[in-house]
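User: Teach me something about this protein's shape.
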Amino acid sequence: MGTRLSFPRPDGKQAEGYLAKAGRANAPAVIVIQEWWGLQDQITGIADRFAAAGYEALAPDLYSGVVVPYHDKDAAGKEMGSLNFLDATDQTVRGAAQFLKRTGVKVGLTGFCMGGALTILGAARIPEITAAVCFYGLPPETVAKPADVKVPLQGHFASKDDWCTPDAVKQFEAGLKAAGKSYEFFSYDSDHGFVNEQRLEVHDRVAGEQAWERTLGFWKKHLGG
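Assistant: First, the predicted structure itself:
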């Protein structure tokens, strides 16, 4: 189990988050970005799983304590719509990267749904990031194009997804390939949100575990551990 903590943003303000310790010194680190529901216990549970796998894991709280129930998509949309994505990336998520990197370790970035879009933004905008893993989320091309990605990128996407659609994924992947980026994308015959075991209507255990193992292999290659 991890703990809540505060960490500084580059602009000097304080951000909040959940830190799960790896249990050993100088472990590589991972930032875990929430879905549009907020920093709920499923996301902190993923941070705990990364810690158990040997990675220091920090999940920033982008909604400042607000957690939306799974049934209330309107409220989740309102919270996501009010989030300044560039500020969240350049200040809160980058602050998390700087906090984790203070001992000189490599830092990865991952996120789910809304957090997946922020992962792509971070891969383009945060110099402290070494590698990134995106789960079913892409930002608008107006803020991050495939050519903007600066680190190796792994992506996990659902074939039955009307938000991060297969066509959007194919277009983004084509852009990465054309720009000569280091990436690997995987598609699963699943619904959007398939990793979230608390949402039984979309969870796919087999796909989720396959994505998890691929993620750990990617981290080992690029972050060590």
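Now, about its shape. Residues 3-223 form a domain with the Rossmann fold fold (CATH 3.40.50.1820). The longest helix spans residues 205-223. If you'd like, I can walk through any region in more detail.
User: That's plenty for now, thanks!
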